[in-house]
Specification:
This protein has about 200 residues and is α+β, with helices and mostly antiparallel strands. The chain has five helices and 14 strands. The protein has two domains: about 140 residues, Electron Transport, Fmn-binding Protein, Chain A (Pnp Oxidase, Chain A); about 50 residues, 2-Layer Sandwich (Alpha-Beta Plaits), CATH 3.30.70. The strands form four sheets. It has a six-stranded antiparallel β-sheet with strand order 2-1-5-6-9-10, covered by helices on one side. A four-stranded antiparallel β-sheet has the order 3-4-8-7, with helices on both faces. A two-stranded antiparallel ribbon has the order 11-14. The protein is elongated, with a radius of gyration of 21 Å. Keywords: 4Fe-4S, Electron transport, Iron, Iron-sulfur, Metal-binding, Transport. This is 4Fe-4S binding protein. It holds the Pfam family Fer4_10.
């Protein structure tokens, strides 16, 4: 798996859930399909009068989620910005050319009410529940620092094997200290809760 494959899978899913935060700090979520994919960015269309647009202009933070038929979850976390005025029509036309059905929603000149946003810096998480053990990886879109999640086993480990016995994915290997195979970890915290010597730390 890699970043480009994740973006391609998102494109094939088509309709994605976009989450933002409103002016009161409450989460808001909606489905968006008017998206155009480039190898290094996503461009999407919405109307200027929508609360979605207002939230993006005020804050910009957005999280996008999709789930494939193969039990793969892909989550993109980044910041959206309105593209430059002289680029708006170009990207709008690309979206409408690629998705002619949008003309049913915004026919003829009514599409001028729209605004194009771009996301070109984001963290993309891939999580496959359809394999055993599960598989997960995180990728960077643009110049972002990937935030590590999950747990690590420290040098306090005494090798009692308790973490291995309670791990649902059996992804902990023996060593000094024991090691969590991060690509197979659920981040469930079972090892963390059961370690008798508190040798496991949240990342």
């Amino acid at each position: 798996m890699d970043l480009n494959t994740c973006l391609r899978k998102m494109e094939l899913v088509g309709v994605l859930a976009f989450a933002t935060v409103d002016e009161e700090g409450a989460p808001q979520i909606r489905n968006i399909s008017a998206i155009y994919y480039e190898p290094d960015a996503l461009y999407f269309f919405t109307a200027r009068g929508k609360n979605f647009c207002k939230e993006l202009l005020a804050d910009g933070r957005v999280q996008i989620l999709c789930y494939t038929r193969y039990k793969e979850m892909i989550r993109l976390s980044g910041k959206a910005y309105a593209v430059d005025e002289d680029e708006q029509i170009k990207w709008r036309d690309r979206i409408f050319q690629e998705q002619p059905n949008l003309e049913n929603v915004y026919p003829k000149d009514t599409k001028e009410i729209g605004i194009i946003f771009c996301i070109d810096h984001a963290q993309v998480e891939y999580f496959n529940l359809g394999v055993n053990p599960i598989f997960r990886e995180t990728y960077a879109l643009g110049n972002v620092i990937v935030k590590e999640k999950g747990y690590d086993i420290t040098d306090k480990c005494v090798g009692c094997k308790k973490c291995q016995t309670v791990c649902p994915q059996k992804c902990i290997t023996e060593g000094k200290p024991f090691v969590i195979q991060q690509e197979h970890c659920l981040h469930c915290g079972s090892c963390y809760e059961h370690c008798p010597v508190k040798a496991i730390e949240r990342r």
